[in-house]
Design brief:
3-stranded antiparallel sheet; alpha+beta; Transferase(Phosphotransferase), domain 1; 7 helices; 2 domains; Phosphorylase Kinase, domain 1; 7-stranded antiparallel sheet
């Protein structure tokens, strides 16, 4: 279990990993207060904003700012718990609760996952490299058959998600934009936006279906059926045939209730589901 040191000072309350140098944390806090314009914004919405551009010693960090302190506490606790349990998430460093005079809110400092890439952007790039042009009107620039690198990654992710579910780990917002992938063989994955993750209890069929649908409708249409089948084959290992059929059918049904949405280098992209199996890139 991660050991946490708690302190309070002029810059606010701090919960940090006990193995982290407090002087380095203090330097990072002061740099954030003095040079906010130098930070690069990765994400900004009403719940949280994410920034990079600072380091903890020699380690680049990512800072997630929550306007709501309770939400920040929950985010840090969830991230720290998952990391301590061996779940592949960004490594947590500290939680900083700022006083009202410094802008208030809470900041979670975690590992900067660069040069890894979000899975949806990685898929778009690899599809362009490995696949032939799509014949499907309105589809992404490239379509199946997906190359071996993509198929291996899909199988690896399916096996990883199966292990997490079997171990009682449920990630509430499991979209491809919240999964980072590296270019190793086999590929490695890291999960982000895990504030509402749950662990320690069996993952029900309903939650499995929700996670599978989230992944399915955030995977580019151009990845086709081959990528989805490779993922499912690895995920379904160990499931009873009857349960596997029920979960797969339900995940497909719930996926189709909304369009496919994912993030590319030029912004969000929305795609309609094919009307028939013959219209899928293969």
């Amino acid at each position: 279990m991660m050991e946490i040191a708690r302190t309070r000072g002029a810059l606010g309350k701090l919960r940090r990993r006990a193995d982290i140098d407090p002087a380095e944390v203090d330097r990072l806090q002061r740099a954030f207060q003095e040079r906010p314009a130098s930070l690069r914004t990765l994400k900004k919405d009403r719940k949280a904003s994410v920034y990079t551009g600072l380091s903890l010693g020699a380690t680049p960090v990512c800072l997630k700012l929550y306007p709501n302190i309770r939400r920040g506490r929950r985010g840090f606790a969830s991230l720290a718990g998952l990391w301590s349990a061996g779940v592949p998430v960004a490594q947590p460093f500290f939680l900083w609760e700022r006083p009202r005079g410094l802008g208030s809110g809470a900041i979670v400092a975690m590992e900067d996952l660069a040069p890894r890439r979000e899975l949806d952007r990685w898929l778009c790039a690899k599809l362009a490299e490995e696949s032939r042009p799509s014949r499907l009107a309105g589809a992404s620039r490239a379509a199946g058959p997906a190359g071996p690198t993509i198929l291996r990654a899909a199988a690896a992710l399916g096996a990883l998600l199966r292990r997490l579910h079997d171990d009682g780990v449920y990630l509430d917002d499991l979209k491809t934009c919240n999964i980072f992938i590296d270019d190793r063989e086999p590929p490695g994955f890291r999960f982000v936006d895990v504030d509402n993750a749950r662990r320690g209890r069996p993952v029900t069929a309903r939650r499995r279906i929700k996670n599978l649908a989230q992944l399915n409708r955030s995977t580019p249409l151009a990845a086709g059926l081959s990528v989805r089948r490779a993922f499912w084959a690895a995920y379904a290992l160990g499931l009873a045939p009857k349960d596997a059929r029920r979960i797969r059918r339900a995940a497909g049904y719930f996926s189709a209730e909304r369009p496919i949405v994912y993030v590319t280098s030029s912004g969000d992209r929305t795609e309609a589901w094919p009307r028939t199996a013959w219209e899928w890139p293969r």
